[in-house]
Amino acid sequence: MTPNAAPASSGPSRRGFLASTAVATAAVAGGMPLLAACGGEQEGRKEGATSGKEAEKLLPAFVASSVVTPDVPAKNGSAAGFTRAIPASELKTSVPKKLGSGGRLKVMSPFWGTPPKADNPYYTAMNEAVGVEVAWQNQDGVTYDQKLGAVLASSDIPDVVVVPGWNLMGRIPSAVNAKFADLGPYLSGDKVKKYPNLAAVPGEAWQRGIFGGQLRAVPMPAPYVTDIAPLYRKDLFEEKGYDVPRSPDAFLSWAKEATDAKSKLWACDDMKWTAFNVFGVLSGSDKALWWNLEGDKLVNRVETEQYLEALEWARKLYAAGVVHPDAVQGKAGGDAGNRFTAGEVLVYNQNISDWWGKTAEQRTQNPDFEMAAFDIFGPDGGDPTLWAVQPANIFTFVSKKASKQQVEDFLALCNFCAAPYGTKEFMLTAYGVEGIDYEIEDGLPVKTQQGVNEVNGAYDYTGNPAPYVAYPDLPDITRSMVEWQQRMGAFTRKSSFFGLTVTEPNRWSNLADDFEQLEDDVVRGRKKISDVQQAVSDWRSKGGDGLRDWYRKLLDDNGSAK
């Protein structure tokens, strides 16, 4: 589990970047590990990916939204930032005409927590506003892969199905190609202009919606800048007079000074994922991003010196005793945030949304609490080399058995839910019904307990605008988060398979599965760097070189999507 994994109690939410002082748990958008797609040999399977001119024929035309101007424009792959709540009198309209036919759609999606009743005021209001009656088939997000596999193996598939990227394994990619409709006839090129909010979704996100040579999915857009940030206790740094470290050596030196085990204070938690960023390791939880063309050779990250250097630096932190002992024992990454807010660790790495989530949580009980993200440095203390993550990681599909009207109703729903911040449609989708699901307090929308329970999940998956950050309760953090993304985006490169949804051949699908555990063993001192080198040699002989040849042919035949 990567450090940006969402806890079972709060699944990934497209509305994770929304302020509600009533709830301080930040939902991580797209935060669980995305496994490389693989599948069985069955009807509908198409290995590889679609890019270049073939993809251009499939992608929707891009028409940027001009409905609302962000306070902090997107730059260098960052999200856009909105720092203030928009009064009701200033809300714009992005869907002037109801596009739904009044039809009904069954939608299966993951849900973390207790699903609300079907006839709740929020669902009722959304159905009326969109013109589509949605019957939600919410499934337990923790075991969603099992339910998804069973449903896709059957002949009884709901009209609409949400597939998180981390569930794209086993036979599921094959089922995606076999069971879901081609949306190209409705969205490709200028056809998308019927749905202006969907036309404003970046093309890189749409590229990820191409499966089996067809545009099959409405994607959840995300910034391509790394979502893992090194977060630190700014208040405690200032109290103790610490400067933010600017190099790996300076970090280790500072960590030794800051750690006081007798006082139950450690410099950091597990920092492996920051180590990968610091040393320029090909990153991202999608294994296709682990390949990059360097000169004339296609290289996997496990073969690089940077990979070994990152593990060695992380190992030094553990060996120096500066890492919290619970991390040494390998306890769940989600506990790192609790150790951080308790003041037991001064630095941890986590999804950047924790910057708002932990601050909102702690301000209610500790007004002096302050945290921030420090800029990622390079191995020599200079500029880093960072690698772009995928611009979409959750996908929503329509059954091949759906009628033309059902597909159009689905797109009407997606267009409504993709309304940008500052619109009436956004407020309804994100907050629900005023007076029931939220109240306005000091100019800010604050969810009631009913809103917390009901306006959660569901419509997060059926359309979303271009990436944004909007925490009007903490505007300084909104601005700081976006500016951090912009600074890091300036050093971000796109590897050869950025933006592509790759279906690997089944015979090599599990080839790299053991590396994450080996990494964790090495940094904790249970294995040696030489064990990694041996594992890489074994990986190459057992299929790694064959997989390299397959990826190279894919690149030669189709080109990159960069």
Automatic annotation (TrEMBL):
Pfam families: SBP_bac_8 (PF13416). Keywords: Signal, Transport. Its main location: other. It is found in: Cell envelope. Belongs to the bacterial solute-binding protein 1 family. This is Extracellular solute-binding protein. The lineage of its organism: Bacteria, Bacillati, Actinomycetota, Actinomycetes, Kitasatosporales.
